[in-house]
Amino acid sequence: MTPFRRLIDILSAFVLGTVLLPVILWVTALLLIKEGRPLLYKAERMKTPDKGFLLWKFRTMRPDSGDRGVSGGDKTGRITKTGAMLRRKRLDELPQLWNLLRGDVSLVGPRPPLRRYVEMYPEIYADVLKARPGITGLASVVYHKHEEALLARCRTAEETEAVYCRRCIPAKARIDRLYEPKRNTCTDFRVMFATVFKNVDPH
Length: 203
What we know:
Blueprint: H1 3-34, E1 40-48, E2 51-58, H2 81-89, H3 96-102, E3 106-108, H4 115-120, H5 122-128, E4 134-136, H6 138-152, H7 157-179, H8 185-197
């Protein structure tokens, strides 16, 4: 990551954090009243093939100590009423501004994967994670809705895992690999614009 991109990330984190502070406080109060603690969902994601960090989101599901893997139709029953609303509005993603400020992620880049998938597919993620992971990215813009539809049809954790590994990981990796050599400040802003105005979930 260049110093200029890091500067953009830091400034964006401060500006967005300030502008969205009332919304963040409102969501915090809503979760306290409706769902109680914990307010945040923290899960390890990978910054590089061998370095992890805790990605922050507002909690949208009932906790499950045995939870693993990505979310599919098998986890739909755990989504709370408040959590479903936050997901529709993409408000559960707001705590990632902290990850942006810390330098765990950039504004634009490949979505940070779980450690299990990096270990399962080291040859893919050794290439993809040459770039700093992002809050959103081209794969998020063009593939998310398709991925969501694929995984929503899964009824077991095993089926979700199989579909995600067989169809989603290779497709998103191809898009991320195509984007990285061509990226610049203008293309990054186009991806961010598409994310906001197409209401894409950068997951």
